[in-house]
Every structure is written in C-alpha cells, then in structure tokens.
Amino acid sequence: MKHQDSLSELLGFELEETASGRALVRAEIRAEHLNQHGTAHGGFVFALADTALAVAANSHGPEAVAISASIHYTRPARVGDVLVAEAEEIARSARVASYRISVRAGTELVAAFMGTVSRRS
Questions:
Q1: How does residue 120 score in pLDDT terms, banded at 50, 70 and 90?
Q2: Is the pLDDT of residue 67 over 60?
Q3: In whole angstroms, what is the distance from residue 77 CA to residue 107 CA?
Q4: Could you give the 3-state DSSP secondary structure of residue 11?
Q5: Per-residue pLDDT tens for 79-114?
Q6: Which of 39, 56, 66, 73 is the most exposed, having the fewest neighbouring CB atoms within 10 Å of its CB?
Q7: Strand order in the sheet with 64-73
Q8: What is the CATH number of the domain that holds 63?
C-alpha cells in the first residue's frame, strides 16, 4: 500500500493495512536509523508510531492533525529488526480522537505511544 507522506517514504515506512480507526505500518531498521549507542534512534521509532497515528486518524474522512503525543520506550531495536506500529482508535468525538499505538519487533514491545488528534470539518 502506498501513502503520501514524504518523510515516511524517505525513512522506508510501508503501510501494511488500514481500516476505520486502525493502521499497521512497518519498517526495517537500517544502519542510517541508529543512534550513537548502535540502536534505533528514538526519533525513528516515534516517527513510525506517529505515521500509524496519522493513517488511523485520517481513515474517517475529515482531516485530523495531532495535538498531543507521548511515547514510552520499552526495549531497544537493532539493525535488521522489523518494526510494526499498530494503531487502534480508543475514543472519537466530532472534534477529537485518541489512539493507542504499539510498536513491536516480532512479539517484543519496543514502544507504547498515545496520540490525540483534532478532527477538522
């Protein structure tokens, strides 16, 4: 599946699945995604989760933009790991919606991300 986000394309993110209020986005960790410790840069993991948030939030039609996001890293990711960010809508009204995104390498949780969006009419 193709998406229209230039940064996500540059980083090698692949949209695997989208449905109403849901999204799966994957990326393989490459050498250029590493920090000084030799593990995936936190900004890379955040960007992957944020992309899943954007896809899920915009699946309903009216434009949605992030107004709040937080992430908790639970384990490092390394070169060759394939990360999958799964976004799930947990609440939605006419003006705002909230999403939970888990980023996993296989069955291992790499990060837990929460995001809230403003829904524009």
A1: confident
A2: yes
A3: 12
A4: helix
A5: 999 999 999 999 999 999 999 999 999 999 999 999
A6: 66
A7: 14-19, 22-28, 82-92, 96-105, 108-119, 64-73
A8: 3.10.129.10
Q: How much is the pLDDT for 61?
A: 79
Give the tokens for residue 32.
């250029």
**Residue entry with tokens 């994957």:** 26
CB 18 within 8 A of CB 59: yes
Position 1 in a domain: no
The number of beta carbons lying within 10 Å of the beta carbon of residue 102 is 17
Residue tagged 């809508």 (tokens): 89
Total number of domains in the chain: 1
Other CB atoms within 10 A of residue 9 CB: 12
pLDDT digits (tens, 9 = 90+) for 18-52: 999 999 999 999 999 999 999 999 999 999 999 99
> With DSSP H G I counted as helix, E B as strand and the rest as coil, what are the percentages for the chain, rounded to 5?
25, 50, 30
Q: Are 118 and 100 in contact (CB under 8 A)?
A: no
Q: What is the pTM assigned to this prediction?
A: 0.94
Six-digit token string for 93 = 């009204």
- 12 is in which domain, residue-wise? 6-119
